């Protein structure tokens, strides 16, 4: 372990961390030295701790005004997750941290900001609101982190990021972390990180310890097959991804009607509803979370053993992120992608970029049991 203050060493012990992952070993010393860093690594490789840990160590004993660290991340769920890691790292210190995102009281956030806070984890929209209303002081920011940079760009947040970067012109350090390096992310690196150190470990790839299965299907068998998979694998912690909100809601309704402990997570839900769904999976009051790609980035739920794609995602990057929700902390995991004949083009893009070969033989092994599932649903 690196030479951290005693409070950080104690926090690591409390979190059960005895060794660092590859991306952490590469990034932490550079960040501690104050360098600008571009961190690219596979999902589940520990990128959050790679930047939160050294930044927390830097500000121990600092005054809470002005704010020293700003972490920008695309979704509420990621904001809460990063905040949880920051609080664990800061236990036993004077460091105050908070999150900023829409759906929570603006005035309450304003009061908390006035009281002083060392570290802020913010979603771009709400951050921009506070900047424009002069309810946040970013003049003393030392480090800005752009986390899940590919999703920030996918969601059209570049104008918001530019506002934030202009408001933090006095910063001494800029960090960017992502699982994939897309052309859009290169726009960010060229604009804000021209002198950065690049640390990379298996970016744009799925983990080798994930068992990936691709299964051809017809529309009438799609739901029977999902049911069969849940029974066959005895799934106690699973994520099922759909392309649309409507598909997510419809599939969750079918599952709950069949007495599965499931919930849905999609973008039209309120903050409270989304938090309740995620908490259900984390605390194991539900077994299955049916979600759109809103759940594909950064979420860390260690007991998720299976990912099921109801249909192939439209890009290889999305596939990498979805599949990365299993095999967290180097535990094994299984990812099953169901596809129809007219979806093969999406599948080919995924297979090519991941350097994999399509092998539907596993599906043949499933056929007998699938016929039983069809009979249970009175399809044949």
In terms of topology, how is this protein built?
Layout: H1 6-14, H2 22-32, E1 37-41, H3 47-58, E2 69-72, H4 76-89, E3 97-100, H5 106-115, E4 119-122, H6 124-132, E5 143-146, H7 149-154, H8 158-167, E6 173-178, H9 183-192, E7 197-201, E8 210-216, H10 222-232, E9 238-241, H11 245-257, E10 262-265, H12 271-282, E11 288-291, E12 306-309, H13 316-323, E13 333-339, H14 344-353, H15 361-376
Parallel strand pairs: 1-6, 1-7, 2-4, 2-5, 3-4, 5-6, 8-13, 9-11, 9-12, 10-11, 12-13
Helix pairs in contact: 2-3, 3-4, 6-8, 10-15
Gist?
With 380 residues, the chain is of the alpha/beta class. The chain has helices at residues 6-14, 22-32, 47-58, 76-89, 106-115, 124-132, 149-154, 158-167, 183-192, 222-232, 245-257, 271-282, 316-323, 344-353, 361-376, and strands spanning 37-41, 69-72, 97-100, 119-122, 143-146, 173-178, 197-201, 210-216, 238-241, 262-265, 288-291, 306-309, 333-339.
Give a description of the structure.
- With 380 residues, the protein is α/β, with parallel strands linked by helices.
- The protein has two domains: 6-201, P-loop containing nucleotide triphosphate hydrolases (Rossmann fold, 3-Layer(aba) Sandwich), CATH 3.40.50; 210-376, 3-Layer(aba) Sandwich (Rossmann fold), CATH 3.40.50.
- Helices cover 42% and strands 16% of the residues.
- The protein is globular, with a radius of gyration of 22 Å.
- It starts with 5 loop residues before the first helix and ends with a helix.
- The mean pLDDT is 90.
């Amino acid at each position: 372990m690196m030479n951290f203050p005693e409070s950080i060493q104690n926090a690591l012990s409390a979190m059960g961390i005895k060794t660092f992952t590859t991306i952490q070993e590469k990034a932490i010393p550079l960040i501690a030295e104050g360098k600008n860093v571009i961190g690219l690594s596979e999902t589940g490789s520990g990128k959050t701790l790679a930047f939160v840990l050294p930044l927390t160590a830097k500000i121990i004993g600092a005054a809470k005004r002005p704010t020293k660290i700003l972490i920008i991340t695309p979704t509420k769920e990621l904001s809460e997750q990063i905040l949880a890691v920051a609080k664990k790292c800061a236990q036993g210190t004077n460091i105050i941290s908070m999150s900023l995102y829409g759906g929570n009281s603006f005035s309450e956030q304003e009061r908390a900001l006035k009281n002083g806070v060392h570290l802020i984890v913010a979603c771009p929209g709400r951050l921009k609101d506070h900047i424009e209303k002069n309810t946040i002081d970013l003049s003393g920011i030392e480090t800005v982190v752009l986390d899940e940079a590919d999703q920030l760009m996918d969601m059209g947040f570049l104008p918001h990021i530019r506002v934030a970067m202009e408001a933090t012109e006095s910063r001494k350090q800029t960090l960017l972390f992502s699982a994939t390096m897309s052309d859009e992310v290169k726009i960010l690196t060229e604009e804000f990180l021209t002198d950065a150190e690049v640390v990379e470990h298996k970016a744009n790839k799925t983990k080798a310890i994930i068992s990936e299965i691709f299964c051809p299907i017809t529309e009438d068998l799609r739901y029977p097959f999902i049911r069969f998979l849940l029974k066959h694998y005895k799934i106690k912690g699973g994520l099922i991804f759909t392309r649309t909100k409507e598909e997510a809601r419809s599939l969750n309704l079918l599952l709950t009607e069949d007495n599965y402990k499931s919930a849905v997570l999609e973008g039209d839900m309120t903050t409270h509803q989304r938090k309740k769904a995620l908490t259900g999976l984390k605390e194991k009051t539900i077994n299955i979370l049916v979600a759109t790609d809103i759940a594909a980035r950064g979420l860390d739920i260690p007991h998720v053993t299976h990912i099921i794609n109801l249909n192939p995602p439209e890009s290889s990057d999305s596939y990498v992120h979805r599949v990365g929700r299993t095999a967290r902390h180097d535990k094994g995991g299984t990812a099953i992608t169901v596809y129809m004949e007219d979806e093969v083009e999406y599948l080919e893009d995924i297979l090519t970029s991941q350097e994999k070969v399509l092998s539907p033989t596993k599906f043949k092994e499933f056929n007998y049991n699938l016929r039983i599932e069809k009979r249970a649903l009175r399809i044949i």
